Amino acid sequence: MMAGHLLWISDPATAIQAVLPQGWQLSGTDPAGALQLTDSPALVITDLTQSPLVDDIARHFAHSIRVLAVPDCQDEQLLPYLQHYHLFCLQPVPAESLPGLIDVATALDALGLSERCRNQLLACSHLPLIPPLVSQLQQLLLDPDVRIDKLAELIEQDAVLSARLLQLANSAYMGFNQETYSIQMAISRLGLSLLYGVVLALSVSQDRDSGDGLAGVRLAGHCRQVGQWLGLDQAAMEQMMLAALFYQLGQALLQSADGEVSALTAAQAGAFMLTLWGFAAPVAKLLLAQQSLQQAAKQPAALGLYLARSRQPLRVPEPALEKVLQKLGLLQHWPAT
C-alpha cells in the first residue's frame, strides 16, 4: 500500500473523522490555507461548490486527484466543474467513501507511470462524465438475479447507445451468423461481465470520437477475431475488448484535451480513465503492456490487442512483427510483402 496524503478543504475548515489505511494521513484546511501549500497531495477533496475559489483550488492542485463534494450528483449540477475535477461525491462527505477514493489513488500509483505522464494526465481537463444511465446500469448489475429484459429496457432509453451496442454485437468479428436487432440478444452475446464496461465506454465516447464514432467498436471487433486466432479464453477476450474500447476513448481524450499532453499515449489516457472509474487493475495494465511488441509478447491478451491495432489499417507487417506472426502461425492473415 502506498503512503499518501488526503487533503480536505472546506470553509470554515472542518474535520473529517475517518480510519485510513496504514501510511495515509488526513489533514484539513480552509481555502486560503490550501492555496499556500506547495506540495501535491495524492487526493484533494473540497465541498466549495459555491466559492469563487473552487476553480483556483483545482488549478493549484493540478497534479492531485481532485474530488468535489456536491449537494446533488445530477448532470446539470456537475457540468460547471467538469473542467477541473476528476470525481464527485455527495455532501456531506461520508467517511465510508474515503477508502474507495484511496483505492483509486493507490491503483493509479501502481500503474507505474512516469511523474511527467502522471502529472499531465491529472492536469487534463474536461474528462468524460459518466451518464446517469450508466450509473443506473451499474446498480442493476449489483443484483446477481437481475433479468436481461430489465437491463435492455434501461439501455433502450438511449437510442445512440442502443445502436452502437447492436453494431458491436452484430460485428462480423463476433462470430454470429445472424444479425440481431434485439438489445436483449446483444446483451446475451456480450455477457453480463463485459456489459458495464462496454456501455460505459460507448456512452462517454458518443461526443468524443472523431470520424464516424465507431472506431472503438471496430477495434473491439478485431480484438475478438485475433483472440480466436490466439485461442484466448473468454476472460482474456473480455479484458482485451474492454481495453480496446478504452484505448480509443483515450485517443479521443488526447485529441480534445486542453493543456500539455505531449508525453502521453492513448493507452496511458485509457488506463488513467479505467483506474479513475474503479475498474480492476488487470485491464489497465493490459492496455499499458500492449504499447510495444516486446512488452505485449509477454502477455497473450496484450499481444492480441497489439495485433488487432496493427490491422487498423491492415498493412504489410514490419520485420519484427512478421517474425512473431510467423511463429504464431498467423502470417496468412496479413498482407504479403
Oligomer: single chain
Tally of DSSP helical segments: 17
Q: What is the strand tally?
A: 5
Largest sheet: 5 strands, parallel
Gross morphology is globular
- Gap from first CA to last CA: 50 Å
Unreliable parts: none
Structural class: alpha/beta
Helix content: 40-55%
Rg from C-alpha positions? Answer: 21 Å
Strand order of the largest sheet: 2-1-3-4-5
Order of helices and strands: EEHEHEHEHHHHHHHHHHHHHH
> What share of the residues does DSSP label as strand, in percent?
5-15%
Q: What value does the average pLDDT take?
A: 87
Task: Note down, in words, how this protein is organized.
The chain has 337 residues and is an alpha/beta fold. Helix content is 51%, strand content 8%. It has 17 helices and five strands. The protein has helices at residues 31-34, 54-60, 75-78, 98-110, 115-123, 132-141, 148-155, 159-169, 183-190, 192-204, 215-230, 234-256, 266-276, 281-289, 293-296, 300-310, 319-328, and strands spanning 4-9, 24-29, 43-46, 65-70, 87-90. A five-stranded parallel beta sheet has the order 2-1-3-4-5. Helix 2 links the parallel strand 3 (43-46) and strand 4. Helix 8 (159-169) crosses helix 9 and helix 10 (192-204) runs parallel beside helix 12 (234-256). The longest helix is centred in the C-terminal third of the chain and has 23 residues, at 234-256. The radius of gyration is 21 Å and the shape is globular. The termini are far apart. The model has no long low-confidence stretch (mean pLDDT 87).
